[in-house]
Design a protein that fits this description.
By secondary structure, this protein is mostly helical. The protein is built from ten helices and no strands. Helix 1 crosses helix 4, helix 4 packs parallel to helix 8 and helix 9 runs antiparallel to helix 10.
């Protein structure tokens, strides 16, 4: 099924015609395909355009540079992951903050395993500050789901303090997951288990 570009995709010009939307979609799919089989440093706009069957000029109508395409791919994955977690929380009767946090970390690791294109961007630190910020706003991204859970089910207090704590937890979590991924499997599991305990204590104690 064809998907529409995510609302936060940083494009030069948002497509208003079906043909433009198809061009954006082709660029994103081509970039994902290249990320799955090539080192990131070998990917450029010329190669992405060729993979998509487009001219470089057609690509530049919607994306100003390679980073904008990387960001668009990453934001779309983050929104897909958020939607997956939202469905999980709707179906779940969980009321334990640490359990919900642990489930989210496990699900994120599984998502990284299943999507090598996103993994290359997320673990390699190749998502821009602007794109990451778009997913850290209150109500956006996985942090927004955790924020809503804490407020609605656990009766959290000051919203500004909660937002700061969630931002710090997300920044810490991303870095520690990247570190864990670089370790042997057995060591990775230990690091992730400790990460869950550390963040649970920080957010819920």
């Amino acid at each position: 099924m064809k998907e529409t570009p995510a609302r936060d995709i940083p494009v030069r010009r948002a497509p208003v015609q079906p043909r433009g939307a198809s061009t954006v979609e082709a660029v994103l799919r081509a970039c994902s395909a290249l990320l799955e089989r090539l080192p990131l440093e070998q990917i450029n706009t010329t190669r992405i355009a060729a993979e998509a069957g487009l001219s470089v000029g057609a690509l530049y109508r919607f994306f100003p540079d390679k980073q904008a395409i990387f960001d668009a791919v990453a934001v779309r994955h983050m929104e897909r992951f958020r939607a997956r977690m939202a469905r999980l929380l709707v179906r779940s009767a969980l009321r334990s903050g640490p359990v919900v946090l642990g489930r989210m970390i496990d699900a994120y690791v599984e998502y990284l395993e299943a999507h090598p294109d996103f993994r290359a961007l997320a673990l390699g630190g190749h998502i821009s500050a602007l794109a990451r910020e778009s997913q850290m706003r209150p109500g956006a991204g996985p942090a927004g789901l955790l924020r809503a859970f804490i407020q609605k089910r656990l009766g959290a207090g000051d919203a500004a303090t909660l937002d700061l704590r969630l931002r710090m937890a997300m920044e810490t979590g991303e870095r520690m997951i990247a570190y864990a991924w670089a370790q042997p499997a057995a060591e990775r599991d230990k690091i992730l288990a400790e990460l869950k305990r550390m963040l649970a204590r920080y957010l819920f104690d």
